[in-house]
Design brief:
Structural class: alpha+beta
Order of helices and strands: HEHHHEEEEEEEEHHHEEHHEEH
Radius of gyration: 19 Å
Number of strands: 13
Number of helices: 10
Distance between the termini: 39 Å
Strand order of the largest sheet: 1-2-9-4-7
Largest sheet: 5 strands, antiparallel
Shape: globular
Strand content: 15-25%
């Protein structure tokens, strides 16, 4: 994975012996914490987790900077520990297509395991991101030697493929309100945390980000959110959305 000439501005590689942000974890412990953030790392055997920790390099990327860029050679798989990235693909006509988000517990660059040599999209940090970069060949070796690790990875690939198909169908056959409600329901599942009012979507999606994801405009999303708020379906709390009535959202999809 290319870091580029502006490496200091884009990311920080943690050197052996470095401490965690809270000063309580050494480098190996930090790597293992990253590995255990997601289902894939937890599915790995203890021996496989050791391999991931030994081979991986911790990388931090500041908000607004790319974790990977479209067209770069894929040499590593990123296991995300903290933060969130937005996946975008540049099209030949100069437009940009929003593909989704990855966050804590997700992996990035897994298409290379199927033979895709270069990143097909860019991953831009929407907040500060920390990940563990594991060489591609290490991942391939673990897929061959650790059946449970391979099964969970394949399952996650199928889930993402299914999600892409559902999103395409939604854009073709649902109106803007239905698409937005569907997006909020999925965001509540992926990014939601319990709140006395309902479910707080912890990721601070902007109106433009939501519009890009559902194939609409920022103005239309703003109006639709306002209508949902007036009807008591959602509440907006400092750029974050609280789902007050999940059943009401479902009824609009």
């Amino acid at each position: 994975m290319m870091i580029g000439k502006d490496a200091m501005a884009r990311s920080v590689r943690v050197q052996p012996g470095a401490l965690a942000a809270d000063g309580s974890l050494d480098l190996d412990a930090r790597k293992r914490r990253i590995i255990r953030r997601g289902a894939l790392g937890n599915a790995a055997s203890p021996a496989s987790q050791n391999v991931l920790a030994e081979a991986g390099t911790i990388q931090r990327v500041a908000k607004g900077r790319p974790l990977v860029s479209q067209g770069e050679a894929t040499t590593s798989i990123a296991m995300i520990s903290l933060g969130r990235v937005r996946l975008t693909r540049g099209l030949s006509d100069g437009k940009t297509l929003s593909l989704g988000y990855r966050g804590a517990g997700d992996v990035l660059g897994e298409a290379a395991l199927g033979g895709v040599a270069n990143h097909r999209e860019s991953a831009i940090a929407t907040e500060d991101v920390e990940s563990l970069l594991v060489p591609l060949q290490v991942f391939k070796n673990l897929m061959a030697s650790d059946a449970n690790f391979a099964a969970v990875l394949v399952s996650s690939l199928i889930e993402r493929h299914t999600d892409t198909e559902e999103r395409l169908a939604s854009m073709l056959f649902r109106n803007v309100e239905a698409r937005l409600c569907e997006f909020l329901l999925k965001a509540a599942i992926r990014w939601g945390i319990p709140d006395p009012r309902g479910v707080l979507i912890s990721a601070p999606f902007t109106h433009q980000e939501m519009a890009s994801m559902i194939g609409s405009t920022r103005e239309t999303v703003t109006l639709t959110l306002g209508e949902l708020r007036r009807k008591g379906v959602i509440e907006i709390d400092r750029r974050r959305i609280v789902v007050l009535d999940r059943d009401a959202l479902k009824s609009r999809v």
